[in-house]
TrEMBL record:
Matches recorded under Gene3D superfamilies: 3.30.420.40, Winged helix-like DNA-binding domain superfamily/Winged helix DNA-binding domain
Protein name in UniProt: ROK family protein
Superkingdom in the source lineage: Bacteria
Organism: Streptomyces iakyrus
InterPro entries: ATPase_NBD, ROK, WH-like_DNA-bd_sf, WH_DNA-bd_sf
Family: Belongs to the ROK (NagC/XylR) family.
Listed Pfam families: ROK
PANTHER family linked: BIFUNCTIONAL UDP-N-ACETYLGLUCOSAMINE 2-EPIMERASE_N-ACETYLMANNOSAMINE KINASE, ROK (REPRESSOR, ORF, KINASE) FAMILY
Length: 399
């Protein structure tokens, strides 16, 4: 047998395993800095189980990339011994772009490495075709970057409701927008010249919660998004479930017991038809509370003391609670996060939702951690998730 035969058969396997191990180790080190910084390298080693030498090596590489920096504050371990110079995330240098396409408008934003929104803008669609919507988003992003001199962009995250295929970077189907097989990554990448990462907004927000929100550290998280689109996402052991071609979380047509709203699919009582913000606004118009399509006007009317607006919001939150209860029965997550305007802005709506879930599980349910910037965070979180999963692969063009 030729002397090269064995290496040819066996060498690719350890290389792949080593690459995966390095990527995972780099990820846990950077996330430890994100979560605990300023933090000593020795503490990172203890938290992650990696050797001190490995942690020092990864921190040196992150510092070279500009992702972390040494803190100016010395720390002593339990007050004795040689003081440590801790490291912290460097959130002054890089940003990511975020693009979220909702039914009436697109939200474009810049976020720092901690997931904080630095700038944002909303662009109405006005019936434009997908290519036009994405071109306007790219132009808006360019304008935001022009207003942030010195910031270097690592990439762009795109999020939307409907069926979004992360791997191909495509909006496969978004019935409310009329989008089908839209190559978002290709179109937005060509317009911006930047790496573009694409995912569904429910999954994007699970990742945002996992990195920056109250769900950080949870072993399993369910997220229910109830806007004009109603969908869900589930993460366990730090991984969001996507399913074949990213179809997981499509709950729009789950039947709601006692539901009366007609659905575009031809049936009555589908979850999205019952919970959609379009349904809430239609009911508010019928009650004379508003004359448009902005659900925040219903929240405003309730805050001003309108009893009908209060009733509509509480009823909607109760229906959301029933949906959460069904999903809890199936998935049994450690924590549930809900994105719904009543729950995000009114304690009585959160109480109504928790009452429907049941006293034994009510404490597991909380509103999204970013009530004033949900859509901006959703877009940016797609790119930030990529960064924190593989920080050593940060865009060389940006760095």
């Amino acid at each position: 047998m030729p002397r090269t035969a064995a290496p040819l058969l066996t060498s690719p396997i350890p290389r792949v395993a080593d690459s995966d191990r390095r990527r995972t180790s780099a990820s846990v080190v950077l996330r430890s800095v994100l979560e605990h910084g300023p933090v000593a390298r020795s503490t990172i080693a203890r938290l992650t189980g990696l050797s001190p030498a490995s942690v020092t090596d990864y921190c040196a590489r992150f510092a070279e990339l500009g992702l972390i920096r040494e803190s100016a504050v010395l720390r002593r371990s339990k007050g004795v011994g040689r003081p440590h110079l801790p490291v912290d995330l460097d959130d002054s240098r890089f940003v990511v772009g975020g693009v979220h396409v909702a039914v009436p408008y697109t939200t474009v934003a810049l976020l720092d490495l901690r997931g904080r929104v630095l700038a944002r803008s909303e662009v109405e669609h006005g019936g434009a075709e997908p290519a036009q919507v994405l071109a306007r988003a790219a132009d808006t992003l360019a304008a935001l970057l022009a207003g942030a001199p010195g910031s270097r962009v690592l990439g762009v995250g795109f999020a939307a409701g409907g069926w979004v295929d992360r791997d191909s970077g495509t909006v496969v189907e978004h019935p409310l927008l009329g989008w089908r097989e839209v190559p978002v990554r290709e179109l937005l990448g060509a317009r911006t010249g930047l790496p573009v990462h694409v995912d569904g907004h429910a999954r994007a927000l699970v990742n945002a919660e996992r990195l920056f929100g109250r769900a950080r550290g949870s072993r399993s998280v369910l997220h229910l998004f109830a806007g004009n689109v109603v969908d869900a996402a589930f993460a366990t052991h730090d991984e969001v479930h996507h399913g074949p071609r990213s179809q997981a979380g499509a709950i729009a047509h789950l039947p709601v017991p006692g539901g009366t709203e007609p659905c575009d699919c031809g049936r009555v009582g589908c979850l999205q038809a019952e919970l959609s913000e379009r349904t809430l606004c239609r009911r508010a118009r019928e009650a004379g509370i508003l004359d448009g399509m902005n659900p925040m006007h219903v929240v405003g009317a309730a805050a001003a003391g309108d009893p009908v607006a209060v009733r509509l919001l509480r009823e909607r939150s109760r229906r959301v609670g029933r949906a959460v209860g069904l999903l809890l029965d199936v998935l049994n997550p450690e924590q549930v996060v809900v994105t719904e305007i009543g729950v995000m802005h009114r304690s009585d709506c959160l109480a109504a939702l928790r009452e429907e879930v049941g006293a034994d599980r009510a404490a597991t349910v909380s509103p999204i951690s970013f009530p004033d910037s949900v859509l901006a965070v959703a877009g940016g979180a797609v790119a930030l998730d990529v960064l924190y999963r593989d920080p050593l692969a940060a865009s060389p063009d940006a760095i």
